[in-house]
Write a structure and sequence with these properties.
Number of helices: 11
Shape: globular
Order of helices and strands: EHEHEEEHHHHHHEEEEEEEEEHHH
Distance between the termini: 57 Å
CATH class of the largest domain: Alpha Beta
Number of domains: 2
Radius of gyration: 19 Å
Number of strands: 14
Structural class: alpha+beta
CATH architecture of the largest domain: 2-Layer Sandwich
Helix content: 25-40%
Length: 294
């Protein structure tokens, strides 16, 4: 069985966009292909006419400080993210998330862009970047634009990216300064390369013994990667302690929409996990932020 008809290997963004635009049938961008190729083989994805391989485009494979923020190209493999000193210093939640995706062979191939483009509500890299305040850079024939990460998702497996026009270039995330830190945790079944039953990430700024800023994300807690803004509001201006955690747990259970998945867990079980994960994540990021003085 043929998974595609045409294969393109562009060497720059312009060539990639031309390949997308000029294709006469359904197109898909491929880098790692660990999700896309499996979906095609197993019939979970409609047939593809043209695959556009972006692994040779330099712009999509760099990690650097750019315009005062960290830029990570969309086709950077997860193992490079986990081992990169710059990312490890500033984006702890992303390192922790990427280190849990699949096994070593998957992480050698799978990319951060693919994790986002697949648009699943509990994608580990996506949940981490949502808490980190990431923006996505998208290229099209009309030029490049920056989009808040959470605006890329329309529903389970449904991305706002136009497969005939849009190329995901990479992601911008803030540098970490004194009193700031992040953390990511998840619960999965004990089998290797298991998908998350529930995951959660937090970023906060700690100053004068209280939370000055916070972002909290989790999944699956709705049809798209979920930002828990009501829970964030309850925690603002508070110290992380048993009282503030308990109040936040109640609000999180009210605002998150957990569902039962026959292959993973019931909604009630996920509610119990959410209480535990929230406490673990908040305590971890609170302690880290206190250690980061400069």
């Amino acid at each position: 069985m043929s998974l595609y008809k045409n294969y393109c290997l562009p060497y720059n963004i312009k060539e990639a966009l031309e390949a997308l635009t000029n294709a006469t049938g359904p197109t898909r961008i491929i880098a790692g292909g660990t999700d896309l190729l499996l979906d095609l083989k197993q019939g979970r994805h409609p047939p593809v006419h043209t695959l556009v391989d972006v692994t040779q485009i330099h712009e999509l494979s760099v990690m650097e400080i750019r315009e005062g923020r960290i830029f990570i190209g969309a086709s950077v493999p997860l193992n490079r993210i986990v081992s990169n000193d710059l990312v490890r210093t500033h984006l702890a939640a992303l390192v922790e998330a990427c280190g849990l995706i699949g096994g070593p062979q998957v992480r050698n191939t799978a990319t951060l862009g693919g994790n986002v483009a697949h648009a699943l509500p509990a994608a580990d890299g996506t949940i981490a970047m949502l808490a980190l305040g990431a923006d996505a850079e998208i290229a099209s024939m009309d030029g490049n634009r920056l989009v808040a990460l959470e605006d890329l998702f329309l529903g389970p497996g449904k991305s706002a990216l136009d497969p005939k026009k849009d190329l995901l270039v990479g992601f911008f995330m803030p540098l970490q300064f004194a009193g700031q830190s992040s953390a990511f945790k998840r619960v999965m079944r004990p089998q290797g390369v298991a998908l998350p039953i529930l995951n959660m990430a937090a970023w906060l700024e700690r100053q004068d013994g209280i939370i000055r800023k916070i972002r909290l994300s989790l999944g699956p807690a709705g049809p798209t990667p979920f930002r828990a803004r009501k829970t964030e509001s309850v925690l603002m201006g508070k110290e992380v302690n048993d009282t503030s955690i308990s109040a936040a747990q109640q609000v999180l259970l009210d605002e998150a929409k957990f569902r039962t998945s026959p292959a993973r867990a019931t909604a009630d079980y996920r509610k119990k996990l959410a209480i535990i994960l929230l406490e673990d994540v908040l305590k971890a990021v609170w302690k880290r932020a206190d250690r980061i003085k400069s």
